[in-house]
Design brief:
The protein is mainly alpha-helical. The protein is 76% helix and 1% strand.
Length: 424
């Protein structure tokens, strides 16, 4: 046993890197199983469960750090109570579905513990994350280009998600990692690669048909514009500033024209027609804001929150679960709210404590030296990446409770944490 543990300790980063590179393949396999065979629990799901068990083994029997073991015991105790609540307090529940949903949620905190442990005093090559991103993008770009990808929506709206299943999940994953790759290309002045990447990235955003990735791209764009303007003013390069402003205006005008020819624009029109919006002022009602901006998520929240309010005190603490009275409870698709309602107050704290603690430390370190850090492209890209992940988790969901995405959130947060920690 010692030989196995020593081997794992020496090669754990290699093993983990291989696992990261299998993620696009697992997601494609899941998509095929769901779209073509209508199979919910797939081989990909099984592999992710096996890897979760592997991380538990590594943390408990290889590294044996007391703090990790204590947190894992807490997660396990909570999981047992959560399942008992579902058995004792609900009629006609679906235990298999509850276990699957629970595993999706505890994947994030366990992944964070695991990545913190294996990256402790070790540097992780960011290029590996970029390579995985490019694989994901390739399997969206090529199918969309040749019109052989799966539809982003089951009905009504337009868009293609390549060979993947969830437009929200793949859009979030690409949006979170992209600022890092852009910063790498900008810092190393690889202009040709940057232009090629941005063209592919832009095409993917516009053909996915979803709104959130566009918002994320605008956040990245606004940072680089501010960065350029500040530097040009500091250097008194006013001619270049005028050229930049002119170029930006022309870019905006060209983008407006280009967008009208994309599924993203078609979906906006479809949505506005569905809501019978004739004037801009018609948008500003709670009903229309909910439908147009939040995709009816506020309505879903209201319904689920009423179920939560009607539950007993134990369920409020440990969660109402995901299945009730013979049917699935509709997710709000806003991760923080879904975790709070479905996993309860205690579940929310246990699942997201390490996540929030890590983000708080990174933000505190960044804003402590905001003036110098803002003009540091690498550090600012880290913060933008985290902000985007928070926005995606809140606006579209499928980030913190989707293992295919949350594993990358774990890696990114730990890498950032370690980089800021090294400067202290």
């Amino acid at each position: 046993m010692n030989k196995i543990n020593n081997f794992l300790r020496r090669n754990i980063i290699t093993i983990f890197t291989i696992y990261l590179f299998t993620q696009p393949v697992l997601d494609i396999a899941t998509s095929v199983a769901l779209y073509k065979f209508n199979v919910d629990f797939t081989v990909s799901s099984l592999i992710r469960v096996v890897f979760l068990l592997f991380t538990l083994y590594y943390l408990i029997f290889v590294e044996r750090k007391k703090i990790n073991i204590k947190i894992l015991i807490l997660i396990m105790l909570y999981s047992i109570i959560f399942m008992l609540c579902n058995i004792l307090f609900k009629d006609n529940t679906n235990i298999t579905y509850e276990i699957k949903s629970l595993l999706n949620n505890i994947y994030l905190p366990i992944s964070l513990l695991f990545t913190f442990q294996i990256f402790y005093n070790k540097e992780f090559n960011r290029k590996k994350i970029y390579s995985v991103l490019l694989i994901y993008m390739l399997f969206v770009f090529v199918p969309n280009l040749f019109h052989i990808g799966f539809d982003s929506y089951a009905y009504s709206k337009e868009g293609s998600v390549g060979f993947f299943y969830s437009a929200n999940a793949i859009g979030s994953l690409i949006s979170v990692i992209t600022p890092l790759l852009i910063s790498e290309l900008v810092i190393k002045r690889k202009k040709l690669y940057l232009i090629l990447f941005l063209l592919i990235y832009g095409y993917i955003l516009l053909t996915l048909g979803t709104k959130a990735p566009i918002l994320c791209a605008l956040i990245v764009l606004m940072y680089y514009i501010l960065y350029a303007v500040i530097n040009l003013i500091k250097n008194k390069s006013y001619k270049k500033l005028i050229i930049l402003c002119t170029t930006f205006v022309l870019f905006v005008l060209a983008s407006i024209k280009l967008i009208t020819m994309t599924p993203f624009y078609d979906n906006l029109v479809i949505h506005l027609n569905y809501l019978k919006i004739k004037n801009v002022s018609d948008l500003f009602t709670m009903h229309n804001i909910d439908h147009f901006v939040f995709g009816s998520r506020l309505s879903f929240f209201k319904k689920t929150f009423n179920i939560y309010l009607g539950s007993n005190i134990i369920q409020k603490l440990f969660g109402i679960g995901y299945f009730m009275n013979g049917k699935i409870i509709k997710l709000v698709e806003m991760d923080y709210l879904d975790i709070f309602l479905h996993q309860g107050i205690i579940g929310f704290i246990i699942i997201l404590f390490t996540y929030f603690k890590t983000i708080f430390y990174i933000f505190k370190s960044y804003f402590k030296k905001f003036k110098s850090n803002f003009l540091n492209i690498k550090k600012s890209s880290m913060i933008i990446s985290i902000i985007i992940s928070i926005l995606c988790a809140f606006l579209t969901g499928h980030v913190l409770a989707t293992p295919a995405v949350s594993i990358f959130i774990s890696v990114i947060l730990v890498v950032y944490y370690n980089e800021f920690k090294m400067e202290e």
